[in-house]
Write a structure and sequence with these properties.
Layout lengths: L1 H40 L3 H14 L4 H40 L4 E3 L9 E3 L13 E7 L4 E9 L7 E5 L5 E3 L10 E6 L2 E9 L4 H9 L7 E5 L4 E4 L2 H44 L1
Antiparallel strand pairs: 1-2, 2-3, 3-4, 4-8, 5-6, 5-9, 7-8, 9-10
Length: 281
Amino acid sequence: MYRMRKTVRSLLGGAMLLLTVACGHEKEARAELDRARALYDSRQYPAARNAIDTLRMRYPEEMAVMKDALALMRLVERGECERNIAYCDSLIPVRQAEVEQLKQGFVLERDPRYDEVGRYVRPEHAVERNIGRSYLRCGVNEQGEIYLTSVYSGTAPINHTSLRIIAPDGAYAVTAEIPYDGGVNYRFKDEGRTTEVVTYAGDKCIDAVRFVDRVADGTRLHAEYTGGRAFAITLTDADRQAIRATLRLAEALTDIEAMRKEREKSARKIAYIDERQATTR
């Protein structure tokens, strides 16, 4: 009988201890949740998110607290989205004004029959003004994707597929290789002359474009047409300035496009959060 009473007391003591520990954890979890809520109220959204993540890791067994933490996390995410939208709304007009200034030195090429997106090019790089000339042409589409085109004109084909831009000190940058496909790398003959046109877009040319942009004025740069028979040209000052101006316009257009996408993404997320909250009420 004595042993039975002792066993019962031990079991009751253990139960009380577990209850005390459980209550203690809930109290601590609630305190952590309150701290996260205070961070949210002060619009410290990244800190509030971190506090909620820590709470989830420390007290996963506190289901009631976890439910409230999930609801708070949705509010944090909504607050972040609202902040993103406000940021984009404030900067897009500023960047757009810069684009309008930068576009003044360009013409927009767009055939409505074939092109969904137009391309900005410098007037001096218009095709009709460079017939029979080997040169580099740079442009950017309306969404901010820059491209570099190597044009070759000569009596015999060289079958080039890429470019290497070289400075006098030996520094250089290269484009990606574009195999002949009759599209972005195409060739034709007319009245005994061969023309080759290879276009490197986006990541396939950006290193070469930025290299031209970085090299100081007055430095002679050579463009080697590689992948076939050896051929090289010297970049004119006008061509280099056109490449630099195109890069500035591309950067501004890319920023606007990225902010518009971020704004749309944030708006969609707010709609999703609001829908979820409405269904859980």
